[in-house]
Amino acid sequence: MELDLKEIHDFAVGVAEAAGKVLLTRSSLVKNKANSVDLVTEVDEKVEAIIKKEIALRYPEHNFLGEETYSAGSLRVYAIGDEPTWCVDPIDGTVNYVHLFPMICVSIGFTYQGKSVVGAIHAPYLNQTFSAYQGGGAWVNRTTRLPYQNHPLAADAPRGCVFACEWGKDRRDEPNSNLSRKVDSFVNMATEIGGRNGMGGMVHGIRSLGSAALDLCYVATGAFDIWWEGGCWEWDVCAGVIIVQEAGGLVTTANPPDSTESPVPDVGLGSRLYLAIRPAVATESESSRDA
Ligand code: IPD
Known about the structure:
The protein is built from 7 helices and 14 strands. The protein is an alpha+beta fold. The longest helix is centred in the middle third of the chain and has 24 residues, at 173-196. Residues 67, 89, 91-94, 166-169, 210-212, 229, 231-233, 236 line the site of D-MYO-inositol-1-phosphate (IPD). It is an enzyme of class 3 (hydrolase).
């Protein structure tokens, strides 16, 4: 099948930006989904319906997987197959949206042969649109090519890194303590590596934006060195995966502290666990973050 990825990309960017305007309206209706921290608002549902309609008009032969359509149980099979499939999160960061924290976005991904090949992520409060298509590079607001940070990844990373992670929506004891242990061991590993080198190095910071899609965008820009989450769905990551990959970064399904696990580069979708590492950019300012 011949697909014009640039055309699909341009269409996705336009739809994401138009949908972003609707996100700026406030929603009064908040409902619970799987549990009391898994939220959906009437704006999530409205925006997904708008995006779904636009896609059906332009590409009636393509499949559609949307977070709210899936949650509503109207989708019989959610596994992404080989056929062209749109994978949409109308609001990634719904908890942020409800709590008026501006890190929210519309995330529109497109897959072919089981891989993410187009991504458009629009963050309306930030006025930023991150986008990419396979072979076309990754961009912010169509004009600035990613990555735009020029500091290289430290040779002894994770020392000196900004590590981002998300906490997902599973509040049972076991998954949570597991997650805290992973973050802990990552930070300890950084401290230990720094100590061994006599540098006293540690991670520079730990961040959690509340939006997996935006985390991936900031891995692509180079702001975040490493991102990890163990509870994502396809719609959370589909667009962000290709944006990181086209920026020159890596997305795998490994746990950062487990050296026994072999990373699988160029990962397909369908995992719940993802690790992304930002593009390693070598410049003359190589030592600027060593202090
Ligand atoms: C959630 C966010 C959050 C992540 C969850 C996602 P939603 O998506 O990306 O950061 O921890 O795993 O489900 O519900 O806001 O679209």
